[in-house]
Amino acid sequence: MSITIKDVEHVANLARLELSEQEKEQFTSQLNAILKYAEKLDELQTDGVEPTSHVLPVHNVTREDVVRESVTNETALRNAPDEEDGQFKVPAVLE
């Protein structure tokens, strides 16, 4: 697979970028170099290699979920600039 200047122009158009002719040529060669490097992965012998999602073993390090006392409604609304019926009252954003 090879990237052409037309491909770079198409992506630039989608991203709403204005590129000079020099930038288009530069990005074309850079993207082709990346693809050429990625093609080297095809040369690797991966038979018998177990698929992984991480290079290192990762495990969940979150704390245990513990039920505890929550903030009361009055405490939560104590610093509210405005409240109504036990809820924060904010200016309308839609008409």
TrEMBL record:
EC number per UniProt: 6.3.5.-
Region (Disordered), start-end ranges: 69-95
InterPro entries attached to this UniProt entry: Asp/Glu-ADT_sf_sub_c (IPR036113), GatC (IPR003837)
Catalysis performed (reactions): L-aspartyl-tRNA(Asn) + L-glutamine + ATP + H2O = L-asparaginyl-tRNA(Asn) + L-glutamate + ADP + phosphate + 2 H(+); L-glutamyl-tRNA(Gln) + L-glutamine + ATP + H2O = L-glutaminyl-tRNA(Gln) + L-glutamate + ADP + phosphate + H(+)
Any Pfam family the entry gives: GatC
Segments passing through the bilayer: none
One of the GO BP terms on file: regulation of translational fidelity
PANTHER family (alphabetical): GLUTAMYL-TRNA(GLN) AMIDOTRANSFERASE SUBUNIT C, MITOCHONDRIAL
Subunit details: Heterotrimer of A, B and C subunits.
Keyword terms of this UniProt record: ATP-binding, Ligase, Nucleotide-binding, Protein biosynthesis, Transferase
Family: Belongs to the GatC family.
UniProt function note: Allows the formation of correctly charged Asn-tRNA(Asn) or Gln-tRNA(Gln) through the transamidation of misacylated Asp-tRNA(Asn) or Glu-tRNA(Gln) in organisms which lack either or both of asparaginyl-tRNA or glutaminyl-tRNA synthetases. The reaction takes place in the presence of glutamine and ATP through an activated phospho-Asp-tRNA(Asn) or phospho-Glu-tRNA(Gln).
HAMAP family the UniProt entry points to: GatC
Organism this protein belongs to: Paenibacillus montanisoli
Gene Ontology molecular function, alphabetical: asparaginyl-tRNA synthase (glutamine-hydrolyzing) activity; ATP binding; glutaminyl-tRNA synthase (glutamine-hydrolyzing) activity; transferase activity
Protein name, entry field: Aspartyl/glutamyl-tRNA(Asn/Gln) amidotransferase subunit C
